[in-house]
Design goal:
two-stranded antiparallel sheet; single chain; about 5% strand; flat; about 80 residues; Arc Repressor Mutant, subunit A
Length: about 80
Amino acid sequence: MEQLPGHRRRGGTTCFLTTDWILSQLHQDRERDERIYQALRVYGYTLKQVVKVVGLSYSTGSVIAKKVAEAQKSKLKTRTPMDVL
């Protein structure tokens, strides 16, 4: 496990980032992004409602929703008729 240099916080504590932590955060971010998209598209919540609950800015929520929507579109374009069967 690779460890990145520590970052000194106020109060003298040091925070060490590891690659495992970074990868787990990436996985959590993907899940969060997918759930934001589902809340908007599937369940019909407004972006304002979702970002308020999640604790993001409106513009960040908008970027996330757009990114996931584009990923969904690209998945549909790359599917072949055999994928459905």
